[in-house]
Amino acid sequence: MFTSNPFAALSASISPTVMQAFVVVMVAFVVLGTLFDVVHKGSAKFFFEKMRKAQRSAAKPVSGGNKIGIAIQTGMADVLTSAEFCNPRRRIAHLLGMYGFVTYALATFMMVFFYPTAANVAIWAPMWWIGALAVCVGGYWFWFFIRADVSAEGKSPFRLMKADLFILSLLASVTTGLIWAYLQAKGSGWSTIFLGAYLIATTVLFGGVPWSKFSHMFFKPAAAFQKRVAKADGSRDNLPNLADRANPTDRDRHSMELLKDTPLNMGLGIKREAPRHY
Fold it and tell me: What is the distance between the alpha carbons of residues 28 and 207, in angstroms, rounded to a whole number?
């Protein structure tokens, strides 16, 4: 089953051209939805204005070579390994979902456009199945056990909010896709029902970009890059410098009077135990 191309059997009833057109429409939804999101919310305008303010308050210049290095560091740490997540469980779940979705989407594209009638595709078919399963593992793990409002606040995992549109539509799309492919491989008549659910969930996932967190995957790398540049040039996004009690100037400030003689690691006990239903 894991070497079978689910779109090959589908091509017997639906033309590969129709499947390819559907994929093109989904890509167009992402592009147009992201552009609409940028214009409607003013994200790009806000970002560039914030960058200009930071440049005006920069303490030192950052050369082009240093910016290239920062960009590489951002890509390696913030994008490829999701270093922004301090919680290791959430980081692993995010990486499973991210790499699983990229693998699943790439395999879908390759099989639909280049192998739409090939029953067995040695590389892309297993990647499709493995990628989809990785999304499910990371996504359901996050949804039921890691979310802050569930793990820390004791809220029901079935409590839905508008912000959940992306993760729910993603899980619905991938889950119904796996069930459809499995039932189709077994020759079950139920496969048609799950094919319809798969198409609907996928349309919601890609068509709902302006109302979900889908477009954040494009904004977050830019924001992470700017954050590192602001730290390198000393502007710190126009935030005050962190107090350093080892520095006599900081230690003797009026606001630090009650803390200047306390141990430097005082207060770190809060990290000993994760919050649970406070």
Answer: 9
* pLDDT, tens digit (0-9, with 9 covering 90-100), for 230-259: 888 877 766 766 667 677 777 777 666 777
Domain that holds residue 42: 6-238
- Domain containing 125 — which CATH number? 1.20.950
Q: Roughly what angle, to the nearest 10 degrees, separates helices 43-56 and 216-233? A: 10
CB 170 within 8 A of CB 139: yes
Asked if 85 contacts 220 with a C-beta cutoff of 8 angstroms, the reply is no
Indicate the number of domains in the chain. 1
Report how far residue 39's alpha carbon sits from residue 33's, in angstroms, rounded to the nearest whole number.
10
Q: Which of the two residues, 62 and 251, has the higher pLDDT score?
A: 62
Residue 261 resides in a domain: no
Tokens matching residue 26: 């989904």
Q: Is 250 a member of any domain?
A: no
